[in-house]
Amino acid sequence: MSTKKLDSAKYVPIEFNKQNLIFSEPETCKYVTINGFLKMSCLVEYEGQLHEVLKCPEEEAFYQAVDLVNTVNNIQVYSRSCANDTQHYQVCGVVTEKSKRKYDEYFLCGYFVCQDAPDISGNCGKYSSGGLWDTFIKCNDKKECTNGADEENCEERNPANSFTCSHYGTKIPISKVCNGINDCPFGDDENGSCDHTSGLFCENWAGDVTWISPFHICIPGRYQGYCKNREDVTNCDVHEGGRWCKSGSHGNRYIKESQMCFHTQGKEALDYKVCIDGRDQLNCTNVALTCSVSGFPTTISSYGLCQGHHQCQDRFDDLCKTAETDCYIHKHQFCDGKSDCDYEGDEKAHVCNEVTSNFKCKRRVSTSPTTSLNMPNTWLCDGVIDCADGSDEDLTLWNVCGSEDTLIRCVEKSEVCMEMFKCPGAERKFSGIQTLCDNVEECTGENKMCQESRGTKEVLSIALSFNKNTKILSYQCLPGIKDHGICDQEHLHGSPDKNVYGITPTIIQYSSSSIGVSCKFFFGELYVFYSCNDLCLDTSCPLFSIPYQSCSNIKEKAITFAARQSTMKQPHYLTLVHKQKAGFENNLFSCNNRRCVTYDKVCNLADDCGDGSDEVLCVNNYRCNTSAEFIPLSAVCDGHADCIDLSDECNDQCHLQILDHTALKVCAWAFGVLATITNFVVVVRKTVSLPKVRSKTTMFNSIFVICIGVGDLTVGLYLIGVSTADSVYSKSYCTQRFDWLNSGYCTTLGVLSTAGSTLSLFSMTCLSLFRFHTIRNIFSSRQLSRKSRLSVLSIVVVMITLVAVIVFIPILDIFEDYFLNGIHYGKHVPLFIGAPSKHEHINILEKYYGRLKDSMVTWKMIRNLVMEMFTNDHGGISGSEQKFYGNSGVCLFKYFVSKSDPQRLFSLAILSLNCMLCLLITISYAFVYLLSRSSTRATGSVKSSRLERKIGIIIVTDFLAWVPFIVFCFLHYFDLFNGLSLYGIFSIVILPLNSVINPLIYDDIHSVMWKWGRDKTGLRGVSVSEPRRIKTLTTLKSEFTSKADTNALENGPSVVQVNRTTEL
């Protein structure tokens, strides 16, 4: 609907009352938009004709609004004034100009409806509004309107606290004088009464002294003038002190000195410019800039900047940018510590993120010329002189970075030159590395690369829609299920504003069982609807009222939204709605920077506003400290870095250390020291006694026990090394974790752990098989021969070779495409967080270069491609490699692999091998155990009984150390269990268990230690508490004599088996 245009001489307004209206249909009223405002339009019958009328807000009254033609001031005529419309919303949208010029904060659209307006309005109707005279006659202590609308809301404008404007005596609060904003119609509150003077005072034709604005002086073609003495129209020819300029509709005009330096900028008042080229703002007292104009040093006032023209030869007066909606300011008003925009867009701008730390200078444009300010780094050496002394372009004062082939830039002497990111595509454009992923897209596709780097956060942010304006929050409310009476519904207005004119409420349906739930894992619409209806235990509603100036990103032809419409929030201000299928809704979130987003963009882990205001009040996210990114709460303390500053893992909540728990720290030290000492003693004792061995059986047993001891000793050293690193890094481990994981020390510990446990397991397997073989072949020769020595040596060499292969293959460069976990580039490269894997690298690189084939990409290619993304003027970009053993803080072999890990086949093969070895050990000792058991029953030998206990311990400890661990590893591989959280327990407690117990099983080390301690303390006579000695391979070797063989021949094989099992 649009307002009609009628000739003022023919129009006769009709006042419609409900009583004299006949509606053409039962429901003929509907909400429509008129020039961007929501109105209720009705089709009525009056005196036999159909009329389109508007309904007054909050009352059963109707009116017509008509634009009058042939009037200078575009007067609007109404058939009536709406009685309950105290803020004159009736006017909004009817005013011809769509740009809601708001001259008075007390009226919603700046105008009021005047009854019986004076002749100056040019109005012949009963009610009118919209003329320039509305501004003139309001609050001048004269009741020009019969209904007194011109004197409404004038309490703050009493003579004691007001300033009287020169035209028609309009009063404004004294606080608005000289505040930099024109509040009087012609700006005399800012001119003639402040620190600068323009215009002139004279006696007008009515005999009153009045102020004549510069705009109305020397108007071409006007001879009578406003001044009685015609001072404002005399001496308008060229004379000394005057100046020629372009004056819009007046063409080229000559202005007098009294017309110069007129303040022509204002947010509320009329914007009359004496000169449209700004030449009236030269050499004024309000100096903002000094530059060369036509070859002469000239000053320009602050009101001459950013006017769409330039006077300075270097165009410096017009170097202006939009800081935020309705805030177009000069470059030097950014980052000056003073907010020039309503929402501080000039101080929160991207350019302010990096400024000089030690350098300050006086800027060429400044409201305080004596104040020195820090400079944004991008202003240094950019070819534009920003400092008054030109020091920002003096190359001798700076470290000059870059090259002619890339980009020459400057940093302070105390700083190091950094590489630059090369924007993708053919354009020769660069971006600072540290400004990557800051939500400001300096390069095409930058945000997509950063999103890929952080990983896609899949969240459900849209509620199910049903029947247009109905939102379903829980599955119990789906059609067919809700009929069982388990679903409730409420009406939700799209914002905290409950009294919004014309709004269609949203109906939400939810289950009664969902009341009082935790909303920390709800997002978007679900989060808003639940929290704003008090259905959550731990959240509050994040919505605000929406001022009509908001939603600068919603345009008339916006893709996301329908055309923005303004409406009234009773009783004091305008708000916004937008049209949906169900009607007009205001389900928008108002960002701090005047942008707006829909509910599905609120609390959804993404900064959709651009200033983070759509996420900061939400309790379902964690905000990274430096990068201000938002991640889900489930991603905090999960062991994977999602923030470039690692704050999601390095905080008081996570307590991330190499060994997270005190119990693990104690176990690591205790097991490490005990395993190291006991196994060292075993290795030394067995090695010293080895030359005295004459039996093949004893030789084999001794060699394998030595190998087991060496392996377990290595594991003990590994535990001590991990404990030491944990003590050194302590609480700082989290922030330095990649330094540790990628270090050679971590790799060395991983090698020690894997080599020790593998050698020990191989040796135990060989020993168990040898014992099984010995039992099976009771009549074989026991004589130590050259062949037997070569046999045991060959077995040891094969074992060590296999151990070396298993240990060193994962860290050889030739196999890096299978075993390298990732590359860490440090905190100074925000594009890569943590240590991205090969697959993560490829995903990022594809956003830069285009599609890459995963199977063809090697780590060498990745390094080259990453290097080509940045300049190489200062050594290029490099990172530290996270090798195979750096997958966790304990530097363990990567047993826990997923289906996507390239090393999964190798790890699963080693796990399967270990599983098979454990099975062989169990079977071998089970056979020995059964044989010993039968021998004990046959002979009643105490030695066999002891052997049974020893074999039982061997089987149980081997089973507890390896079998559960292997099972968990396979469960992790098939995504049935997350074993990463148990890495510390397995590496410190479970796997080293054998390393501590083996010396007690395979050697009488406890007896040796007891005897040594007894000798040192002088307790030789004490024998009561001396532990019973278990005969070992060494002490029992003398019992296996030729006499035993003789007995075997006489008494049968069973006696030989008893002797053999006893020796074992």
Your description of this structure?
The protein has 1064 residues and is α+β, with helices and mostly antiparallel strands. The protein has 18 helices and 40 strands. Helix 5 packs antiparallel against helix 7 (744-776). The protein is elongated, with a radius of gyration of 44 Å. Mean pLDDT is 78; it is low at 1-12, 96-103, 556-562 and 1019-1064.
**How many individual helices?**
18
Number-wise, the strands total 40
Shape: elongated
Query: How would a textbook summarize the main sheet?
Result: 6 strands, antiparallel
Task: Please give the share of residues in helix.
Answer: 25-40%
Evaluate the radius of gyration: 44 Å
**Overall pLDDT confidence:** 78
Stretches with pLDDT under 50, minimum 5 residues: 1-12, 96-103, 556-562, 1019-1064
Q: How far do the termini sit from each other?
A: 104 Å
Strand residues, percent:
15-25%
Secondary-structure class: alpha+beta
In short:
Helices cover 27% and strands 16% of the residues. By secondary structure, it is an alpha+beta fold. The strands form 15 sheets. Strands 2, 3, 4, 5, 6 and 7 form a 6-stranded antiparallel β-sheet that branches. Strands 1-8-9-11-10 form a 5-stranded mixed β-sheet, with no helix packed on it.
